[in-house]
Amino acid sequence: MPPDVTWYTKLWNIIKPLLFGGGTKIDLSHAKNVIVINNPQCSGPITVSQSGDIVTLNVAAFPNRGAELAPVFREALNDPDGFILEESAFSRIQSIQSHEDSAETKEEIDFFRQILPPADVTILRACLYLKKIHDENIHHVEVARLKSQISRLHGKRGTNMANLCTAGYFKSWIRPLYEEFSRIEGDKTDALKKFQKVYHTIVEELPWTVFAAQTMSEYELEKQIAYKLDKIKSYGTDFLNIHALSKSNVSKVRSVIPHIEEQFPNIRTSVREEGASIIVRLRINPDPKDA
Amino acid sequence: MKPTLTFHVSAKKFVLDVFEKTVDQEKYIVEKDNSEQRVLTAKGEEIRLGDFAGIRHGSGIFVKSDITSLVAASDFIRR
């Protein structure tokens, strides 16, 4: 066989004789995806979808349990862009790519790539994808699963970034914060240095937000809100936003707020509810003309 | 047309076998000829069978199934 024969041509040559004994002509040139399965319950080694674009290889039904396929698969990965991926991981990657190909997401990622530490850019991209799933408002279990992966892998910083991103703070607060530093400082390096210091505090400490979590008791939630209200002036802001998603978290926030209002008589409370989510804004010492 | 190559979760061990890898007692993926040597992701992390999502370019770059790893891998997978 000439050396420039592709791995998939070699694969077709291996499998063709096994397709109906090789007597039937099947055009494999339209195949877009080769799926490898291992199903001893299924006797056929090869299935080709009606449209010819999916070829399923059941290694359990191959004469040598698929050993003859191994060199071809190894060769497939010699391509610089070669890969073999578990089906759901591949679908997820395609979904991520399609999301990031949209002009709005692309612009957002390109912007943050210039101002965030490189490790945070990958976390942010994962968080933006999480936000997309979150905003579709249909895959609640998936949202919880993705968020827990980000938290498990990136700790408190990851959890905070996921919460900030799904609540829209990267776009509505963190980006304008950099733009403001950039406007004031003039010099980009100085602006970036100052921004990153504040940004670090934001993602590590969430100075102006509290996210009610399932694992948090009412007491813990109240304690966290009171702690942040005490410190809020030192962060240079005068408000604290309390976010809750899901019925139980919303009800936790509802029962805690009256206690907070007792402890901090100088706060003004405003509430925004949407579906099973609530945002309570507590503003300290509001300007009398705004009251 | 170059087809994409994917596998069902049932073929995980077959794929590892193709690339001469196996799994140690703690379920980490290791070299078949040296069970002391655990394989690594592009970030240098060891990888358990349960987190294995695939391999890209050559037989050395293992991909984990969590969302951040897939975001990072998406840069190397053709669109």
Largest sheet of chain B: 3 strands, antiparallel
Structural class category of chain B: alpha+beta
Termini separation of chain B (Å)? 14 Å
List unreliable stretches of 5+ residues of chain A.
none
What quaternary form is this? heterodimer
- The radius of gyration computed from the alpha-carbon positions of chain B, rounded to a whole number of angstroms, is 12 Å
Please give the share of residues in helix of chain A: 40-55%
Task: List its salient traits.
heterodimer, A: 291 residues, four-stranded mixed beta sheet, three-stranded mixed beta sheet, elongated, B: 79 residues, three-stranded antiparallel beta sheet, two-stranded antiparallel ribbon, 19% helix, 30% strand, globular
Description:
The complex is a heterodimer of chains A (291) and B (79). Chain A contains 10 helices and 8 strands. Chain A is of the alpha/beta class. Chain A has a 4-stranded mixed sheet, covered by helices on one side. In chain A, helix 1 runs antiparallel to helix 2 (70-76), helix 4 (103-115) runs antiparallel to helix 5 (118-136) and helix 9 packs across helix 10. With 79 residues, chain B is α+β, with helices and mostly antiparallel strands. Helices cover 19% and strands 30% of the residues of chain B. Chain B contains 2 helices and 6 strands, in the order E-H-E-E-E-E-E-H. Chain B has helices at 12-18, 67-74, and strands spanning 4-7, 21-23, 29-31, 34-38, 52-56, 61-64. Chain B has a 3-stranded antiparallel sheet. In chain B, strands 5-6 form a two-stranded antiparallel ribbon. Chain B is globular and about 35 Å long. In chain B, 41% of the residues are buried. The interface between A and B is large, with 54 and 40 residues. Strand 4 (83-86) of chain A pairs antiparallel with strand 5 of chain B.
